[in-house]
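quick one
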Amino acid sequence: METAQHPEPPRVPDDWFVGFHTGLVARFWRAAGATMADRDAAIVASLLDLPAGASVIDVPCADGRIALRLAAAGFAVTGIEIAAEEVEHARALAATAGLDATFLTGDLRDLPDTGAVDALVCWGNSFGYLPHADTVRSLAGMHRQLRPGGRLVLESMTVAESMLTGTIAPHSQIEFGGIVMRRTNRYNAAESRLETEYVFSDESGAVERSHAAHHVYTAAEVARLLTHAGFTELRLLGEDGVEPYALGASRLIVVATA
Ligand SMILES: C[S@@+](CC[C@H](N)C(=O)[O-])C[C@H]1O[C@@H](n2cnc3c(N)ncnc32)[C@H](O)[C@@H]1O
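structure w/ S-adenosylmethionine:
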C-alpha cells in the first residue's frame, strides 16, 4: 500500500536573519514591540543601574524602541542593527523626538568597534538567532565592547526551561498593526533548533513569506557560554527582571559583568 509522502521543508538557512527584517516583517514587529516597549525599557534601565550619561550599546536595536527610551532617560546610546531599513527608521524617530542617539548598521557576528562602553543590552529574544560558532563569536564581541566592569543585560525567550516547558503549537496566528502573522513551527531536536515558516499579510492583500530558526540553549549552557566569553557575576532572572529565573518562566534575563 502506498503512503502519502510529506517531504521535509528545505532547511532554514543558517543566515536566515540576513534580509529578514524588512517589509511586512519589520512593520509587524514594530507594532508588536511598541506594545511592550515602555515596560521592557523600564526593566532594562533598572537592571543597568547606571547614572545618566553612561554609554550603552543596544544590539540588535531594530527600530530603536529600547534605545530611544534609554536615550530619553539620559543614557548615551548606540544602537546597532543588521537591517538598514530599521536603522533609518530609528534615526528618523530620534530626529523627530529630538533625541541624541547613534544608530549604526552592524552584525552581531562581527560587532563594529564603537570604543568601550559602560553597558551592552541584547534584548527582544535575539539571543539564539546565530549558529553556535557565531553565538560564541558574538558573545566574545559583546565582552570586547564593554569596559572592564561594564554590564551586560541579555534577554531570551527561547531558553529550554522557558520554551520547551510549554507547547510549541505547530500552527499559530497573531495580528499586530493590521498585519497578520501565520506561523508553522517545527522543532528540530537533533539541532535543538526551532524552525518557523512565516506568512505575513496586510489589509491591502500584500503577502510576504519568510523563515527563521532559533537555537535553543539551556540556562546553564547560556551561563557557560557567557563565562567562556569572559563574563562574571552572572545573575539569572525571570520575566520581571527581579525574581530568580525558574523552570517555566516566560523568559530568561541575564545580568553579567565584563
Ligand atoms: C525581534 S527584533 C529585537 C530587537 C530589539 N532588541 C527589541 O527588543 O526591539 C530582532 C532584530 O534583530 C536584528 N538582527 C537579526 N540578526 C542580526 C544580526 N546578525 N546582527 C544584527 N542584528 C540582527 C533583526 O534585523 C531585528 O531587527
